[in-house]
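Model it.
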Amino acid sequence: MRIAGCGDIPALQDIWAACFAEDKAYLDLFFSQGFPLGKTLIMEQDRQAASILTLLPCTCRVGSTQYPAAYVYGVATAPKYQGRGFSTALLAEADQYLHSQNIAMAFLAPASLELFGFYEKRGFMPQVYLERTTFLPGESPGQQGELLPVGAEEYERLRQVFLPKDAILWDKNFLQYAAKEAAFHQGGLYRVAIAGETVGCCGLYLDKGQVLVKELLCPKQQRPMAVSGVQQLYPGRKVEVYLYEDGQRGAPYGCAKWYMKQENKPIYASLILD
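Modeled.
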């Protein structure tokens, strides 16, 4: 295993294009703006990149304790090397690397329900839960709120105010990239206001013609008004809202692996790159 450098980007892009069906414009965005934020690990075979994953830094807050953490993103194996255990071996190497860096936990979002079993066998247990709620065009769920665009610094401040106690915290650099990714998909980061008062924040973009609200942080009773604000921005489109719940509702969405003290509480993790 080794850490990728800028010279590896063409090979990494080839693996991403083969495994994730991303178009070149998005690959250019990620590898110019997102790639420098973390560390990409490479496992080689025949002097070629066989399997890769990216570790993006974050913080996991549980109660009053904050743990250094990493988001495991873009786990992929080149098609000609698939089925030979390279991803498993690279995840094991990533465990050793993270432990050496005093990282307390790692988390990831499996791309499908079938992959939860794969990751559970490798020590990643469900700890993030998601409930999806869909609103069709014309289904106004309540009094209308207003969405006002904000920058990454302001969004980080708003998240600190409205986040649940047990949550993944992203720094300003990550949120700056999240804003660029959202803008790439005709979305953005917003402050939610009702009658002029700030009641929350949200991040959203267009996905296959519908509006995908990847994060909505506001009191539960004010969510319908926030959704009405989304509908005002994108009239005539279906709106799907990701709500991250406490494990009593919703389906497993993300898995965590702890290297130090084990925390079993459900963790709020949102704005995940997927």
